[in-house]
């Protein structure tokens, strides 16, 4: 009876995930090995093509830069939030959560108004006479990165506030009472204790930006194609489904690889784990 | 931890919050501008762009679709997610560990890949109607929230209360509804909210599953933006932000906002 219950209760969700996610994704990946030219022909074609490799490199680059900036900005902000007294802290958390709950399209759209040819920055610079004609800031790697950082900093802040609040105050006081100056205290006490949280945040931001679609679509356009927009274009514009599936397979391998490696690292780095 | 913060760090944090909130203020400002192009600060104030949305059939229709998909998808994901979360916590020792990994797969697999795979397998492969595909796709996409968030509140639930009810002769389903469910109410509400917000804002999965005549609001916004760059989009964005405000008010009223950092 018990055995029946425990399997029966998990069964609908298990069947749903296997039938609608695992099998479809596996089938999609499987189609890439069925080419007449040989099982790995689409992959060799991908890795030999300058254009496709440029898309992959660009995506990795944008994701890494975004993750790096989000780590620094998010950590400092989360650190400040964690020090705040109760009321102010809640207000700051709300201010970080609000953008997070607002959709990707809306938040990317804001940067079209800010960075566009007739956008706020161009208008401001022109009216003070710093520039004669509008700068083209949209559809550059910079515009994609700015919007991505904007997208993911709240996520990093929220991940890290919880982690930083969990660091016992006694440890910092102990370090201080033993004569440690603020910088060594930070480097030798706070940073190692926050490392697992930093890794979790980094994984979330990296995978999120590596696989994003709407932001590179709106702010990067054709010129700054990334893996997500490339996959969509191959599938829905040129109807090259095997090509799209190849992109999908590469994306799956990279994201799951990063998650596995980093979560193992987070476990090893956790100084609180015995 | 609480120590004095360096003024430079404080100033930096203020700048970050400016960076986070200014774009949203800019959207609100440009939605009110009495011009046919997007501009900020607004030139003249008008609400006509909001009135304009309601006259545009495409926005009205897709907004309704988005709501239907979000409600049905969230409901479906809770319906299969809550029992799974319950079993995972109640019979933790007896169930294999890969099972809980399985339920986070929808977050682990890139959304855009999931959308594409769904299009190939169920919309085209099985010939399911677009609307059904959307609901099913969203339900799966948000399943991890149902399982994890409800699971987190089940983790602190004392199952001996349930045992007590059962040993006094209360049937299993009634025990769950009257004893377990009220105790994990906060988790269920939180899961609902997170799932709903994720669904209503989703682009990457929906972009593959919208078909002739059926689209969701974010996809419609994207399509509109490719052709027009007028304040209509800003005013739709403001309405979506109001939905977020509403949701946050519900969170505050039911759980308290500090819940969000836990």
Walkthrough of the structure:
The complex is a heterodimer of chains A (274) and B (262). Chain A is mainly alpha-helical. Chain A has a single domain (52-269), classed as Orthogonal Bundle (MetI-like fold), CATH 1.10.3720.10. Chain A contains twelve helices and no strands. Chain A is globular, with a radius of gyration of 23 Å. Chain B is mostly helical and 262 residues long. Chain B has a domain at 57-227: MetI-like (MetI-like fold). Chain B is built from 14 helices and no strands. Chain B starts with 6 loop residues before the first helix and ends in an 8-residue tail after the last helix. The mean pLDDT of chain B is 89. Classes of the chains: A mainly alpha (274), B mainly alpha (262).
CATH architecture label name of chain A = Orthogonal Bundle
Task: Tell me which oligomeric state these chains represent.
Answer: heterodimer
Number of strands of chain A: 0
Shape summary of chain A: globular
- The mean pLDDT of chain B is 89
Shape annotation of chain B? globular
Strand content of chain B: under 5%
CATH class of chain A: Mainly Alpha
Major sheet of chain A: size, sense and barrel closure? none
List the defining traits of the structure above.
heterodimer; A: 274 residues; mainly alpha; MetI-like fold; 12 helices; 79% helix; 0% strand; globular; B: 262 residues; 14 helices; 74% helix
Give the SSE layout.
The complex is a heterodimer of chains A (274) and B (262).
Chain A: H1 2-30, H2 41-48, H3 50-83, H4 86-101, H5 104-115, H6 120-127, H7 141-165, H8 169-177, H9 182-210, H10 214-219, H11 227-237, H12 241-269
Chain B: H1 7-31, H2 48-55, H3 57-90, H4 98-102, H5 105-108, H6 111-125, H7 130-141, H8 143-155, H9 159-167, H10 172-183, H11 185-201, H12 206-209, H13 217-227, H14 231-254
Helix pairs in contact in B: 1-14, 2-14, 3-7, 3-8, 3-11, 3-13, 6-7, 8-11, 9-10, 11-14
């Amino acid at each position: 009876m018990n055995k029946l219950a425990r399997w029966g209760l998990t069964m609908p969700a298990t069947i749903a995930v296997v039938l609608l996610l695992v099998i479809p994704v596996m089938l999609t990946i499987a189609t890439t090995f069925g080419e007449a030219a040989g099982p790995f022909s689409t992959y060799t074609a991908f890795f030999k093509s300058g254009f496709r490799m440029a898309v992959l490199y660009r995506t990795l680059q944008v994701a890494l830069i975004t993750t790096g900036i989000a780590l620094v900005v998010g950590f400092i902000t989360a650190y400040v939030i964690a020090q705040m007294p109760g009321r102010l802290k809640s207000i700051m958390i709300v201010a970080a959560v609000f953008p997070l709950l607002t959709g990707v399209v809306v938040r990317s759209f804001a940067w079209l108004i800010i960075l566009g040819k007739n956008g706020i920055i161009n208008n401001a610079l022109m009216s003070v006479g710093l520039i004669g004609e509008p700068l083209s800031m949209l559809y550059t790697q910079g515009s994609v990165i700015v919007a991505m950082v904007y997208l993911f900093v709240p996520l990093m802040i929220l991940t890290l506030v919880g982690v930083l609040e969990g660091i016992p105050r006694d440890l910092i006081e102990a370090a201080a009472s033993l004569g440690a100056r603020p910088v060594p205290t930070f480097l030798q006490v706070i940073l190692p204790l926050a490392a697992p949280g930093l890794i979790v945040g980094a994984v979330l931001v990296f995978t999120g930006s590596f696989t994003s679609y709407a932001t590179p679509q709106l702010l990067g356009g054709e010129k700054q194609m990334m893996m997500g927009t490339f996959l969509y274009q191959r599938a829905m514009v040129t109807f090259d489904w095997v090509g799209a599936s190849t992109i999908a397979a590469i994306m799956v391998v990279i994201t799951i690889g990063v998650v596995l490696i980093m979560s193992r690292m987070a476990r090893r780095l956790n100084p609180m784990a015995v | 931890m609480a120590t004095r913060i360096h003024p430079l760090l404080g100033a930096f944090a203020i700048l970050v919050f400016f960076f986070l909130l200014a774009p949203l203020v800019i959207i609100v400002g440009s939605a009110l501008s009495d011009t046919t192009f997007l501009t900020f600060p607004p030139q003249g104030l008008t609400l006509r762009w909001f009135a304009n949305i309601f006259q545009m059939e495409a926005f009205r229709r897709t907004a309704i679709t988005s709501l239907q998909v979000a409600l049905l998808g969230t409901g479906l994901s809770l319906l299969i997610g809550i029992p799974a979360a319950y079993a995972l916590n109640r019979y933790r020792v007896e169930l294999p560990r890969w099972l809980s990994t399985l339920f986070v797969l929808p977050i682990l697999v890139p959304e855009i890949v999931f959308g594409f795979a769904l299009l190939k397998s169920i919309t085209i492969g099985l010939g399911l109607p677009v609307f059904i595909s959307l609901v099913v796709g969203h339900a799966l996409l948000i399943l991890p929230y149902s399982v994890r968030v409800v699971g987190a509140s089940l983790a602190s639930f004392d199952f001996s209360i349930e045992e007590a009810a059962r040993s006094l002769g209360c049937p299993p389903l009634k025990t769950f509804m009257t004893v377990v469910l009220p105790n994990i109410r906060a988790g269920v509400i939180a899961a609902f909210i997170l799932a709903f917000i994720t669904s209503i804002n989703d682009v990457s999965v929906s972009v593959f599953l919208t078909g002739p005549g059926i689209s969701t609001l974010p996809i419609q916004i994207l399509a509109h933006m490719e052709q027009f760059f007028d304040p209509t989009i800003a005013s739709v964005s403001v309405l979506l932000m109001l939905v977020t405000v509403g949701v946050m008010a519900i969170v505050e009223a039911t759980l308290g906002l500090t819940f969000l950092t836990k």
